[in-house]
Design goal:
Length: 274
């Protein structure tokens, strides 16, 4: 979100009444006031912090303060129940900046040294706790590696040549291991902005892989703006389940009054060869 949140967003949620609200991180550049505001929304919430949420602090102090504010809704390296819904979310590595595997100084100060293997196993262990009757939903700040290495790929590096796969290797490893016993239904992430650098188009942000895992990159930045008619619009990524089955996945642009203006949907049978 990068700070793009206000009263209009909260009024929109009040009108739409979603069953739950999930935040993929980079709420701001360490603004604790915004984190506190989001954590108090009157909906079942799940949140994972992004690399910007520590601000410029490398000591870990800002990150500790952020975690204290979101302790009841943070899903980093854990399974979080979205009570009273029959739904939970499994979180990936907190504060990821993509690029394979790297822990910032702030993350190491808070969590200690964690290897790629240890990170993957934490995610796998959390996923094993999701009841069989619930959908298996994972959320991370950055998406997994393995979804392509073009600038337009969901986690493709677009700000520097050559373009490379900038996804998280620990998340990809975890997904491979989880899928041996149960294929995840949905992976939600952000970090990799939809609008590519230097005005070179948009990245792919909705896809399904050959295993049937659906992915949504929710990083529409900025997530508010105006259309060609001068109307104010707000962006939300939207998922719906019918029982355990993912029945709908889309990006949506709303007017502040709750009117749906535009929808970009993942076709149910669309798959990516990767």
């Amino acid at each position: 979100m990068h700070g793009a949140w206000g009263t209009a967003d909260e009024q929109l949620l009040e009108r739409l009444q979603p069953d739950a609200v999930l935040f993929v991180g980079d709420l701001s550049d360490g603004d604790l006031r915004l984190t506190r505001r989001l954590s108090q929304l009157p909906f079942p919430l799940a949140l994972i912090l992004g690399n910007h949420d520590r601000g410029r602090d490398r000591s870990g102090e800002v990150l500790r303060q952020q975690l204290a504010l979101v302790k009841d809704v943070d899903c980093g390296w854990a399974r979080l129940d979205l009570d009273p819904l029959p739904l939970s979310v499994v979180g990936g590595r907190p504060c990821s900046s993509g690029g394979g595997y790297h822990l910032s100084k702030a993350v190491e100060a808070v969590y200690g040294p964690v290897t790629l293997e240890q990170s993957a196993e934490r995610i796998v262990a959390a996923a094993a706790l999701v009841p069989a009757e619930q959908p298996l939903v994972l959320m991370a700040h950055c998406g997994p590696s393995g979804l392509g290495s073009d600038p337009t790929s969901p986690c493709g590096r677009d700000w520097k040549t050559p373009a490379v796969d900038w996804g998280d290797q620990d998340l990809a490893l975890a997904l491979d291991r989880i899928a041996r016993t149960r294929v995840p239904d949905l992976v939600i992430f952000g970090h990799m902005h939809h609008q590519l650098k230097r005005g070179s188009g948009l990245r792919t942000s909705l896809m399904r892989d050959r295993r049937g895992i659906a992915y949504v990159n929710a990083a529409c930045v900025p997530r508010s703006g105006v259309n060609d008619q001068g109307e104010a619009l707000l962006h939300l990524s939207w998922a719906e389940f019918s029982g355990r089955r993912l029945s709908h996945l889309s990006h949506r642009w709303y007017r502040p009054d709750g009117t749906l203006v535009h929808l970009e949907r993942l076709p149910e049978k669309e798959s990516l060869v990767c």
